[in-house]
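Async update (no meeting this week)

Hi team, since we skipped the sync, here's where things stand on the single-chain job. The sequence we agreed to prioritize is pasted below, unchanged from the tracker. I ran it this morning and attached the output directly underneath so nobody has to dig for it. Comments welcome in thread, and please keep replies under the output.
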Amino acid sequence: MYQMLIFFSMLSLYIHLKIINNDFEIDKKIRNELIIVSVLGFLTQYYFCIFQLFEFIVLIIMLIKNKKYNTLKRYIKYTIISAIIGILIFPASIYHIFFSYRGTKANIASNFLEKIKLYFNELSYAFSLVPIMLVILFLIILAIEIKQRDFKNIILILPAILYFLVICRIAPEMKANTIIRYIAIILPIYSLIIVLGIDKLFRIENKNIVLIFITVPILLLTLYGNFNSEPRFPEFLIYKEHIIINTSADSLEILKDDEKVKNQEAVIVNIRKYMNYEEILKKIMEMLKFDKYSILEDSDEFETVIYKLYR
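Output:
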């Protein structure tokens, strides 16, 4: 679902960029693309609506600024049509967004500043960046945009920032290793912003400035990666072989015929807590003829239990 959310969000962004680069005109092809993508994105995940709302606001402002009033009317009309079609296809969406436990819970999210810090760190981790470097990249692009009086790239920057802040406000309280799904929409946007920032740097006439802005981040990234980054799954780095099993498909049966595993004096088993982990442990011990076990780690943070099975 979240992969499709990213896909339709990026497709929506692409269509809005087409409108801007088409001198703010919406032809039949762009109109059809806008309506279809808006409906499909709406039906995928309601976070799409949040992101597209900010695209809508930014483009409305740009249309007014450029005095494209006919396009403005048509754009608003097509957006309303998209919303109506989406609601008609899935009427229950109204209840889900405004009255379900997810919708009502979104209004009582607490610790806003703490969540901003948490989500921002996750965003930085996704790019292996020192957190402050993301801020620097934004400031570089904004400064160049203001100097050149070319605000077309605001459609990239502003919706991403506003979406991030809103998600920090409404997303449910979750552990650090699982919240990335909610800000996944803006990961490819930040990738575009990084590329855009580097491109704009290379267009600066003073090459000494370019050299500084390129070499210093590379040095910081290298130091940051060597001394601060830790693998999210360190257990995979200390064993020679691994077997990953989807227990929901009854794949545990493959262990019965695996002589290599059955001949081991001891094995390490990592089971997620949301599964019926005690029952799964019992089945594995029966299949591999182990009669003893010890708990190496019981982690609520990563929702996992790690066992050592032996004879």
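Quick observations from my side:
Residues 69-89 form the longest helix (21 residues).
Confidence is low (pLDDT under 50) at residues 227-232.
Reply here if anything looks off.
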